[in-house]
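Dear colleagues,

As part of the handover before I leave the project, I'm documenting each prediction I ran so the next person doesn't have to rerun anything. This entry is a single chain, and its sequence is reproduced below.
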Amino acid sequence: MDKIKVGVVNYLNTKPLIYGLEREPINSQIELIGDYPSRIADMLLKNEIEIGLVPVAVLPKLNEYHIVSDYCIGTQGEIASVALFSEVPMQEIEKVLLDYQSQTSVELLKYLMKEYWGINPEIIAAKDEEFRNEITSTTAGLVIGDRAFEQRKISTFIYDLGSEWRKITGLPFVFAAWVSKKPLSSDFISLFNEANAIGINKIDDIVQASSFRLFDLKKYYNLHLSYHLDDSKRKGMAHFLKVISSN
């Protein structure tokens, strides 16, 4: 039997979701392929994987898609690892560098700048990791994932995108969801869901096994991240997809 190729993101925030996928009974049925979010989205678009933990901003690009899990990368408010970083207050920002690893956060930031913050800086899509060195003076930068924790130690101003979304909408935010382009068997989806749940219940073990000094991982997993794709998150996701389609 051919293994189902599953694209996973190599960030700390995905460890609880991946924990169960790395173990039986599902591990022998899948092949895990790791990369950063925008690359996982490209893999799904190009049919290089069958399931991906993809940025939700990619969904409008798919002719057909299926959300295959009750779990996601979401937040009820402050996410901590997705922010606009700057050395000057928001109104003094003249240029914004966009993280090349991101899609959802890029669209969210553009929406926030236009509709909520009322700023119109020059926007530049970064090409590689060197862009973080340019976050100086009036040039700000969107940084996501584990590197955001490094940037939190450097930048003077931190504008958390999860918090800002909550202020505007009163809704939680979904950054990434498990998505396939074709229907999968109900038996596999059930097994996949159960595998996701295993790690959510093993947070303490995951924290203990992780060596990370830049941020309190137990706090990150339990307070900043919210993994269940419940009705309120689905409502937040639908609202986000609506606003980016109209911009």
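Residues 108 and 161 are 7 Å apart (CA to CA). Residues 4-75+172-246 form a domain with the D-Maltodextrin-Binding Protein; domain 2 fold (CATH 3.40.190.10).

All the best with the project,
I.
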